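Regression report. Comparing outputs from two consecutive submissions.

Submission 1:
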Amino acid sequence: MDSRIKNISDEAQKLGCTVETGAVLKDHTTFRIGGKCDLLIKLNGEESFLRLIPLAEKLNAPYYIFGKGSNLIVDSDGISGVVFVVGKDFSDISRSGNVLTCQSGASLSKICLYALENSLSGLEFAYGIPGTLGGAVFMNAGAYGGEMKDVIASVKAMDRQGNVKTYLPHELELSYRCSRFKNSGEIILSADIRLENGDKTEIKAKMDKLTEQRRSKQPLEFPSAGSTFKRPEGSYASLLIEQCGLKGVHVGDAEVSTKHSGFIINKGNADFSQLMELINIVKNTVKEKTGYVLECEPLIISDKKEFSPKKEEDL
């Protein structure tokens, strides 16, 4: 093992974190695609963030930060370095009046159910989005007319050297599928979510209705990363893909869903190369036939130079 990786592993074990060498990353992504990493560490508290990530920076060790892996495409050949996972070991939720304080590893579904139990409304749109709070803030997740920017009261984050700061909404630079954190490199630790008092029966009815809409319109029965492409200005990715006759087009087990053309799905044993080939077919066909340039919504993680740089975050 690389001495840098070993140093990080030793420190993580001192902090009581779960540590795994050679973890298979398809087990940590909703696409169910991804090879091995050198080391996987489940962060278990704020101290583990403050000590391990600055250590990785100091050692110049490659690393990534995963949440539920719901907005990631990971190379089947594996990636070098450390994968820090922010999940159930860092997922506490507390309440003060109509404000929920949520650690970044808490799943959106868990937070929505907590809000429901406390008769708090405003987060129903997020029920069923398969990600963590940190990832939702990072990309300003949204659905059915709602976005995280509608409910965020503040965000606590740290930079890569371990300096912690709390940001108010006007400082977060929230826009369509974007926030300050996409550019700053800061890591989201927690957020305050401000909701409204509501009727529990009405809140549940709305959550149930949106769940049924998702089930009826989206290919939830297959692994995917949700919407594969961002919405281009002036149109919709799914509409353009369908107009170009790409529904059902596949490369191996990677397929443009026949149920919702905005989703590329894994029909069984799709790998990274098949998925990227299909993504490029879709992008090139749409550009040739319509002039629109589609941008991939999930982050692409690979050691190969043609893909994304290191230290991308998807909590």
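Submission 2:
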Amino acid sequence: MKSLKLGKSNILSSRIVYGCMRIIGDNSIDSRKKGKQAIRTAIEEGYTHFDHADIYGGGKCEELFSEILGENPEVRDKIIITSKCGIRDKNNPNENDPARYDFSKEYIVKSVEGSLSRLKVEYLDLLLLHRPDYLCNPEEVSEVFQELQDSGKVLNFGVSNFQPSQVSMLQSYCPFPLLVNQVEINIHNINALLDGTLDQCQELKITPQAWCPIGGVVYPAWGNTFSKEDEVRIKSEFDNQSKKYNAENWIVMLAWLLKHPSMILPIIGTTTPSRIKAAKQALEIDYSREDWYRLLEARNGYPVP
């Protein structure tokens, strides 16, 4: 497994991140066993970065992960544990409360303490704000970040699904660099290429992470707008490149993301051990600039201007 430094830090992360959103499945005994085996496989295969959120499985994903740490306590110091906070479901905590985002000091602290308790760890390596809070007070967020860092509960911070202007605003208040911006990037959603997100990541040395990286390849992407004609055209190009690189289409997609100079970290969430192992093939593909643009052209249905 290859690795790189996160943002402006000296923290080494595996080049592919393992996402823990699906590790409990339906929370049945069999699903939990499968999730635990997936985590064990990821660790064995050299994944060192594990992505959580307080809302994944209603907190049960973090609890399941803690069972693996309990089996092998020495693993904790060898991995990066990320969690995210800021999304609140409706009727929480009161009936008729709306679904909302919450970056208040009280809620961030409560979320972090909940994650630490469920994970049974003393600190998070990285805390991300999950989705932008329209009522965000950057001064308050900076203050709580500093307090969490001073207390040793969180070592580093970043954001998720933030637009460049939102990153700039928050960073202007924070005395330390934001290390990560986790956004959706896949063959369907290339907004990060167009809206300045990846440009800003390169400018400020923020590491972009791609969630749902194989959406539109293995399964429909969120909010899929591709027509049947689009899907046939895109699959044809994937198939051509699959033969050329002797890799499955979804692995070619990972290679496409890895090619970008912003050094995108794809987050994979499969619980199938063979796929966790196979994802690493993307790191060995000598993916060409020409094939990158061929796939973009197939995706758009027309060549670049």
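Expected: both submissions complete independently.
Actual: both completed, but the second showed a warning that disappeared on reload.
Relevant detail on submission 2: The radius of gyration is 19 Å.
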